[in-house]
Specification:
Layout (H helix, E strand, L loop, with lengths): L1 E2 L5 E4 L9 E10 L11 E4 L4 E4 L7 E10 L9 E6 L3 H34 L8
Antiparallel strand pairs: 1-2, 2-5, 3-4, 3-6, 6-7
Length: 131
């Protein structure tokens, strides 16, 4: 599972071995240990599918995504493969980036103001030279 910057999660997997008789995959999701309905609730995926995008994952929540291959009868379904993850809070990261940018801008403006004051003091405020 790859957590992306926009708050979505990309789930990718390799084809199962053996792939003969594979009809597709079943994807089930849960969060914080309780079964909850959200976009990937009991999703059926085709046999050629190798990735799934969970569009809006909430930050700070523990997710569990389980992928189970589905085979044609009489072959029994193998156990599901599960992955657990948490998405970092994006808002906090954005606030830190914004504060750093604003702080840097303020420092640059203060340097320009100091240079301007030094220039004015040196060139405009100095006493006239005696003749």
């Amino acid at each position: 599972a790859n957590a992306l910057r926009n708050g979505s999660v990309l789930l990718q997997w390799a084809p199962p071995r053996p792939a003969a008789g594979l009809r597709g995959f079943a994807l089930n999701c849960s969060w914080d240990g309780t079964y909850t309905r959200f976009p990937c609730d009991s999703v059926e995926l085709g046999a050629a599918c190798r990735d799934y995008l969970l569009p809006e994952a909430h930050s700070g929540v523990r997710y569990r995504l389980c992928l189970q291959p589905r085979y044609a009868p009489p072959r029994p379904a193998p156990p599901a493969h599960c992955v657990e993850f948490r998405v970092e809070p994006a808002a906090m990261r954005d606030i830190v980036v914004a504060m750093t940018a604003v702080g840097g801008s303020i420092c640059v403006m203060l340097v320009f103001i100091c240079l301007l004051v030094a220039y004015i003091t040196e060139n405009l405020m100095s006493p006239a030279a005696p003749r």
